[in-house]
Amino acid sequence: MEIRTVGCVGFGMMGETLVKGIRRAFPDVQFMVVEKVRERVQRACEEYGAEDTTATPARVFTEADLVILAVKPQDRDALKGMAPPETRAVLFSIIAGTPIRFFEETFGTREIVRVMPNIAAMVRKAPMGMSFHPLASEETRTRALAVARAVGTPFEIPERLMPAFTGLSGSGIAYVLSFLHGMALAGTMAGIPYTESLRIVEALVEGTVALRRETDRHPEEMLTWVTSPAGTTIQGVHALEGGAFKALLMDAVKRAADRAQEFEG
């Protein structure tokens, strides 16, 4: 499998993040860009050596090996005017709420993968939810997974679960950030300056995740390791239970997933 040329339709934050990750993983890849904002086109050309094909967008789908589709959902119908008579490229869509069948009907191809990243792709740590067309080729899968690994960790899921993945991961990074901020505020209230509290909480989260992965134990079992009878930790856990902490998280994910389901075309 070789990726020589990658197209990007929509060079916003996530489009550029994917291009940057691909360039890092595959330094010899050439880029083609379709973007209506001239400043973004200039950045793509200057920073990544991309060819501006905005005036001839159909070329991207016939000349590139893989095309990142990163336009906003409300702009997706513009893709219909870009479709060539025959699409050669693998379509790698990060357009929220847009099912695989839309791209199959628009471009007449089955070489399609639908992807849900999040902004942790900027540091190559994003969970990447991926749903392939049922008849996509093995070459398509190989290319798409290589691109996903350039910016994070791929998780293959059925397309029907894409809204759930959006609620858990695509939106979930906001809940984690809220948790980090809340814990840092708590440290500040207890007497540790906010900046130092935040660094401590970041180390705490990193260490907790590493320990759970290393031991491969259920979080509830691990909780018993640190809750001594009549100790400090059980008092904090009691406060979390009183505030329905887990139920709040479940409701947040469910609401985001339900909203994502509403967007499904």
SSE succession = EHEHEHEEHEEHEHHHHHH
Portion in beta strands: 5-15%
CATH superfamily of the largest domain: NAD(P)-binding Rossmann-like Domain
The amount of helix comes to 40-55%
Q: How many domain units?
A: 2
What form results from the Cα inertia axes? Answer: elongated
CATH topology of the largest domain: Rossmann fold
Number of strands: 8
InterPro entries: 6-PGluconate_DH-like_C_sf, NAD(P)-bd_dom_sf, P5C_Rdtase_cat_N, P5CR_dimer, Pyrroline-COOH_reductase
Family: Belongs to the pyrroline-5-carboxylate reductase family.
Keywords: Amino-acid biosynthesis, Cytoplasm, NADP, Oxidoreductase, Proline biosynthesis
Enzyme class: oxidoreductase
What's the gist of this structure?
Pathway: Amino-acid biosynthesis; L-proline biosynthesis; L-proline from L-glutamate 5-semialdehyde: step 1/1. This protein is α/β, with parallel strands linked by helices and 265 residues long.
